[in-house]
Amino acid sequence: MRDIKKITNIGLLTAMALAISLIEHMIPIPVPIPGAKLGFSNMIILLTLYFYGLKSALLVGILKSFLLMLITGSVTAFFYSFAGAILASISMGLSLKLLNKFSSFIGISEIGAFFHNLGQILVAAVFMGNIKMLIYFPALVMMGVFTSFFVGLSVNYVASHMDKLNIGDIKNEKGN
C-alpha cells in the first residue's frame, strides 16, 4: 500500500512541477538573459527531496524536463533543464543531508539554484561551442539568488505545514 501511495504522490509532484514550469514559460521576464526563468518549479523538487529523498527528486526533475520537452517541442531546452535538474537535485540532496542543522530550505534552495545555473551554462557552452558563454553565469547567479530565496521561503512554509498535518510521516520512506 505504501508503494502505491508513494508512486501516486511522485506522479502528483511531477504534475505540479510540470504545471508550474508551463506557467513559468508564459511569464515574460524583464531580464536580457536568454533562457532565464524564475525557477519556481524547484519548490516541488525540494519538497520531493525533503519527503522522499534524492532518487525521487531526481525522478521528478527528469520527468518534468522530459514532459516539458514533449509539450513545448523544445528539444534544446530539454538539455538545459535536464542538466540543471540533475545538478540542482544532487547539490540540494547533499546540502540537505550535510547542512541540515546549519541551513534552512532557503540556503539549500540557493545552493540548488547555483548548481542549476551552472548546469545550464555548461550545456550552453557545449551547444554553442564557446566557453565564453560563462560570461552569463554571474548574471544568472544574481537572478537565482533572488528567486531561490522565495523558493526556499515557500518550501519552509509548505514543509512545516505538511509536517503539522502528519503528512511528514512519508519522510521515513526516504531513499526507497
Spans where pLDDT lies below 50 across 5 or more residues = 172-176
**Number of DSSP E strands:** 0
Structural class: mainly alpha
Sheet with the most strands, sense and barrel status: none
Q: Which word captures the global form? A: globular
How much of the sequence lies in strands comes to: under 5%
How would you describe what is shown here?
It is a single chain. The protein is mainly α and about 180 residues long. The protein has helices at about 1-25, 40-50, 55-70, 75-100, 105-130, 135-165. The longest helix is centred in the C-terminal third of the chain and has 28 residues, at about 135-165.
Question: What features would you highlight for this structure?
Answer:
176 residues; disordered C terminus; mainly alpha; 0% strand; 74% helix; globular
Write the topology of this structure:
Layout: H1 2-26, H2 42-52, H3 54-72, H4 75-98, H5 105-128, H6 137-164
State the gist of this model:
By secondary structure, this protein is an all-alpha fold. The chain is built from six helices and no strands.
